[in-house]
Write a structure and sequence with these properties.
The protein has 403 residues and is an alpha+beta fold. The chain is 29% helix and 16% strand. Helix 1 runs antiparallel to helix 11, helix 2 runs parallel beside helix 6 and helix 2 crosses helix 7.
Length: 403
Amino acid sequence: MSTAGLSKARLSRMHDVMAGYVERGAVPGLVTLVSRRGEVHVDVIGTQAIGDSPPMRRGTIFRISSMTKPITAAATMILLEECKVRLDEPVDALLPELAERRVLKRFDGPLDDTVPAKRPITVRDLLTFRMGFGQMMAPPDAYPILKAANEQQIGMGPPSPSSLPAPAEWMRRLGRLPLMHQPGEQWMYNTGSDVLGVLIARASGQPLEAFLRERIFEPLGMRDTGFSVPAASLDRLATSYWTDPTSGKLTVYDEAEGGQWSRPPAFPSGSGGLVSTIDDYLAFGQMMLSQGKHKSLRVLSRLSVETMTTDQLTPEQKAVSGLVPGYFDSHGWGFGVSVVTRRDAVAAVPGRFGWDGGLGTSWYSDPREDMVTILMTQLAWTSPSPPDVCLDFWTSAYQAIDD
């Protein structure tokens, strides 16, 4: 057993379980990380692409999709600490496109059948995904509002940097649409983080990536994290795959060379646009676990991190929300992160927080166990429920604790 209370034999068991996914062809490759009490274990298995491909590396770059959201929330909290934004202040001054909202009378009703919003959208609404607009797990034309949102190309599906317009136009298009629910009433996924990305840029007077680089990435040493991959590093970008629902075969979603992340996007998506490496994201996950500190540097106050990682949803909101049925029975939502509220599995330690990336990644920090766990693969999830490789990684990481 190590001084961090991790069993070498059980870490070896985790390797065998994860290697099985590569050997069976379920995923081309993966990188796992378990860090406890500062002792870091990284395992690298498989290749960066199917076929004749470079091996997976510790420095392989992955599209982290929704693991962008916690970083966007942390950036918002930096601005909040500097009093450039306020939690319960209307966003109208910085985002006039969202002023004087109209709200659908019925979610499935016609777009012109609306009522005035009962109150303005606030920064808190964006951080907690209660702005009244977001993604739904339904066909793109299931409802008039969903059809209209998809026609506006504002990012209602998987991350697709090349399909989104520049921030000003993106906001203009969002502003054309009515809200799906009254502000503050219901949790709806995704869109709030994209709006926060625009808010951060306008409040800071810098492009979103410049602000993130100056205030988060450079202080934490996150050299390979950004909204695109420079040409010199494309050999480390894993090819992204999805599973064809008809054939069940792995199909290319995004190439490395010439792909969507090989050039800066018009719209830097605060909800799902970043790429990163396992060590870069460890720096962020450890900073959050250390209550805002990185070595001797303070990125966020302890109070900000505590607020971010506290469940912000009411029981009434949980009853009508969620991407996965029953998810909020044992989880809550803070600012850009999920929070475990009830133990119902080996890895479900109350207080554990983090989030997943639908293109194949997952991160959680656990204050009770002083632990950061990260999984990075290049295969997209097929549903909002975690794939087996994720479930087995979390179980394997926690079964390795031996104290």
